[in-house]
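Thread: DQA complex, take 2
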Amino acid sequence: MLIYVVNGPNLNLLGTREPEVYGKTTLKDIENELKTLAENTGHEIRFFQSNHEGAIIDTLHEAGTINKADGVILNAGAFTHYSYAIRDAISSVPNVPVIEVHLSNIYARDEFRHKSVLSEVCKGVICGFGEKGYMMAFDFLTRRIKLMRN
Ligand code: DQA
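Output below.
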């Protein structure tokens, strides 16, 4: 049971980037918490972060085709709002459920953040719960995997 956690542009700077919006938790902290969760529940987890659209697309392809992951937790950062290429990549791997995650409540922020071009092709969306959103997505995916295997 394999889960990918994919983070997009500027999320490598979590902890110091606009802490009033995104909090003081670093990406490493989030990954460590997810790693512990995965170890405790017997799941394999892989982490990927990139500031480049193409690299995110390659990772979604890899998750869906080569490694046949059971789920992807995706925070595409600002690409969320305009990347039709990432949207198409998600649609191209329909066998793998993708959960869209945002630390902040994108609906309570700038108008341009209210629209996600990814949500329609994702299994679900979690936003506004800070780093806990990643854990919620993990929890959903592992419960789903369990249900599907029974
Ligand atoms: C974000 C929200 C996006 O609007 C923003 O561009 C980000 C982070 C979030 O996690 O809240 O980079 O995805």
